[in-house]
Amino acid sequence: MFTGRPDDVDVSLTGIRYLGLAGTVLLVIGGRLGGALPTADLDATPASVARGPHGLVILACWLVGTGLQAYAWWSGRDRTPSVRWVLVTAALWTLPFLLAPPMGSRDVYSYVCQGEMFRHGIDPYHHGVNALPCTWIDTVSMNWRDTVTPYGPLFILIAAAAVAVGASLAGAIFMLRLAALAGIVAVAVALPPLARRCGIPPQRALWLALAGPLAGAHLLAAPHNDAVMLGLAVVALALIVRSGARTSWLLPAGALLGLAISVKLTALVIVPFAILAAGPLRRAAVTIGGGAAAALVTLTVASGLGWGWIPATGVGTSLIQFTSPPTAVGMTLTYLGKTVHPGFDAVPVVRALAVVLLAATLVHLWWRAYRAADRTRAALHGAALALAATVLLAPVLHPWYLLWPLTLLAATTRRTTAIMAATVVCAFSVLPDGGGLARFVKFPGAPIATVLLAVLLVMAIRRRTGSAQPTPEPATSS
Fold first, then answer.
1. Where are the transmembrane segments (predicted)?
2. pTM of the complete model
3. What's the angle, vertex CA 287, arms to CA 267 and CA 228, rounded to 5?
4. 208 CB-near residues (< 8 Å, 6+ apart)
5. 373 burial type by CB count under 10 A (0-12 exposed, 13-18 middle, 19+ buried)
6. Can you give the pLDDT at residue 457?
């Protein structure tokens, strides 16, 4: 039991550190036995994985390992003694994934093939990896072989460099992991200034952002390009916080945001809040907006890829999974509607309404931050909430997307229970080979998710209404 005495603190922290490390070891073992291996069966289901060689061991390692990491992460959220302790612990939990097989997703094989396409002069915004065909085409999921890439030109250049330097599939994957690690290190360096500006202990912010159950297995082992986007965006915001409204700081901050956008268009939602956080609006809009636009245009033109990457960002919407709240609602309405008309499909309409709601939410968040007494702090928190809204209302939601808002919420608020709980749930939703319940259990998954959303919405409204009620004054005797 934690009583607050120094000896108890040491024992508790030691237990947290090595409990999470044990989780990492189990996840790596599960990945080696049944991760997203190049030779894995692309048509495997959770049931077939369980029945296959080492199936129960794979599932046990993955579930227990995720559980240990999640428990240790949750337990340590308000106990971390220092930034140094957090960084050492996060490194112990994360670095073993550098040498693990890909796990939790097969996206990295698409990354490698897209990089090879670029090196052969084929535009990945107009052709799928089948067009080369890619040397490692057999490793890419069948659903994505004829699909164009939704990523920006900077990431295509990174993928091409990884293929060139790595000189093999394993080498290219390792180079992409180094790029992801660079993004993680950038977050580690730049998040403390944001946390201090918002009154959050830096060690707590770093713990939430870097030690969660999605960080090692998905950002680094997978590896996903979200790490690069987050690293660039967080460094840009840190420059703005420390700039004192100096143009010499704001221009490079804008350029970094432009580079983040050129990895994933998602980073665009941060820009209006970054401008608001920087000081006088007109000058900030010119410097940050101009820096972002200049970096984006220069990179796009210099790469020779053109602007085809912007419309290509919507290709992922072909994926229909109930992990996305709008998609879950649309799927549920579709199941109901098909009892009347076989061709009924509510998913496109609900998704379109969600985009409209997202736009309105972003405007509301920006205006609320604009009216705040401390604009900089409100704008940083507004950027975190904007990313949360983007994740919740987007047509597709993968587990690692939660790291977008989690990273900034960790540095801007102590009210992180909901995002942490969602992170833990999502960490359990994917298996080491990249499969999961969302892919194979559309029904009753979508109706269950819709009911859960409705319950959470009612609870949130009641809580908000209750907090808005005036506190009755105590009765006084006459």
1. 15-35, 56-76, 82-100, 151-169, 175-193, 205-221, 227-245, 257-278, 284-307, 349-367, 379-401, 443-461
2. 0.91
3. 30
4. 73, 77, 406, 409, 410, 416, 420
5. exposed
6. 85
CA distance 110 to 141: 8
Sign, Cα dihedral of 231, 402, 306, 107 = positive
Q: What is the model's pLDDT at position 357? A: 97
With CA atoms as reference, report the closest residue to 206 among 282, 94, 283, 328: 94
* Three-state DSSP state, 436: strand
> What is the pLDDT, as a whole number, of residue 477?
44
If you write DSSP's letter for every residue of 385-434 in order, what string do you get? HHHHHHHHHSS---GGGGHHHHHHHHHH-S--HHHHHHHHHHHHTB-TTS
What's residue 8's pLDDT? 41
Q: Which residue has the tokens 């993968």?
A: 398
Tokens 């699909």: give the residue. Answer: 147
- Cβ-based burial of 146 (10 A; exposed 0-12, middle 13-18, buried ≥19): exposed
Largest CA distance in the chain: 90
Dihedral angle sign, alpha carbons of residues 235, 28, 84, 413? positive
Q: What backbone torsions phi and psi does residue 436 show, to the nearest 5 degrees?
A: 175, 175
Beta bridge partners of 430: 436
Angstrom CA distances, 409 to 19, 45, 363, 474, stand at 25, 35, 19, 37
Tell me the mean pLDDT per 10 residues along the chain, length 478. 40 89 96 90 70 85 96 94 96 95 93 95 92 91 88 96 96 97 97 97 97 95 96 97 85 97 96 94 93 95 89 82 92 92 93 96 97 95 97 94 97 95 93 79 84 86 70 49
| Secondary structure of residue 31 in the 3-state scheme | helix
Contact status, residue 420 vs residue 209, Cβ threshold 8 Å: no
At 472 the pLDDT is: 54
Q: Which two tokens stand for residue 97?
A: 């994934």
Tokens (6 digits) for 117: 């396409």
45/28 Cα distance (integer angstroms): 20
d(Cα 429, Cα 324) in Å, to the nearest integer? 13
CA distance linking residue 137 with residue 449, whole number of Å: 35
Which residues, including other chains, have CB under 8 Å from residue 476's CB and lie 6 or more apart? none
